[in-house]
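Issue 218. Parser rejects a valid record. Input:
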Amino acid sequence: MGYGYSISIRDNIISITLTSGYITSITIHYTMLSRLPGRDWPTPVLTTAGKILRTVTPTTLPALVLIDTGAATTQTEIAAAINRDQSTISSHFQSLALETADVALIEHSDHGYRLTDTGSEILDRAVKTLQELGIELDTIDWTSATDKAQIKACLVPLSGSRSVAPFFLLDSVAARSAPGGHRSESQSAKVETVTRDVENRLQTMGKTTSNRQIRQIIDRFTDHNALRCEDDHLILTEKGLQHANLLHQVTEIVANRVVTEQSGTYASTDSVDEAVLRLRRDRISTSWSLENDDPQLIDHSHFYRQLKRIDFLDRPANEWNSFRWVTIENVGTNPTNAVVHKESGENKIRFEDMDPIAHLNDRDGQRLEINTLTDQQPSFEQKIEFLFPQPLPPGESLTIYYRLTWPNELAHYSSETQSISLTRYTHGVGDLQFGIVDKVDHVGVNCQQFIGEDDDLWDSVSNTPDYFAADERPELAPIHGEDYTGYLYTIRAPDYPGYRICYTPVE
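Output the parser choked on:
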């Protein structure tokens, strides 16, 4: 007798129907977790996210839900709805700075409180996390002590944390447990390594901790079933995975909302200057790219909201080419007229050899004027200036698309890598997208961040690239029909001075 089957997925439930003379239905609940991120969040952004999650308590969560639905929008109405004193609600709002924090969750309206856009996004993520942990808010009685205890059990240990160190710890465990992370095992993180991560984060804030304090945090996570500790390794439980995913989502929201200063911890130190010199033994263009000692190139006016770069390699011509999209925001106090860029290569060329073109927004946009700032030609370095069609006022943004070529570059490679430097963007970068297209396959693809340590200059980023055919991407229309394929890494709020992609072409 023949048989058949059908599968449907809806609301985190897989329904499988088998047909073989009779019908059997199988229902499976599953959890959708986004891939846990690597350690590429700037400490200020992760700190802000931690402070936000600390505010999501059994008292404030129902307040946010009531405000969101409009069921209660004043402190008096909220207090009555959840059976608490109005003074308690007021105290929570003030002490947790729901309205006055750098990233506020609520704001005043004519008829009481309302959620900010950020508050709405974060509430949505928190509600979905509770659903994954078995809590449906529609069934919760906010006046019931038992129901509140259920909510509290799901929110701790993140809720009510007295410092940001627990969030640093959770971020480290998640990053180092993720596939492609720093350990060959995919399910655990070493206590010693996580402790060092937390210490390094706190050090950038001018704070210190101790092994005893870290152990207390670990104990709190294990007591509340978010972690297991086995043989000096930390393992996220299902609850811990959900908390880590929530932290990642909130951090991503914060990174998209806040203009943060790039850490500068790596880009300005003598140790990195020495490391850059060491790079010249391998790829001289990478070392020159990372240098930031030319005041003409330092950008003190713009936040680079998005950098997108796709290099395409013309092997028959030994030619390197690149498509770029740069979205900047003027965060200074005066209008700006241009941005400056430096490109470095392994062989000397003239400015006109780059054949640079630039447009406003995309390749169909207004053509932009480009000037060279490199006095001596030919050169290993080309400094170029993109002029805006009109001055960019403070608070305004624009996008520039440009394309560059570096002739005979591939023939001079001592190693197969492509690199990008962020050292000259003093107000930081929101999103970095970095990829390569080629006509031959690449194996051993690995994205790395520049750490400049004595033992190792580079450290792997745990992100997974998106693979694609160039013909599928409208923005790559100039190379459609030429059988290019490639991959693209996305790094949120990049916090290191430079990144590179290593690969081995299979001819």
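Fixed in the parser; the record now loads. Residues 238-257 form the longest helix (20 residues).
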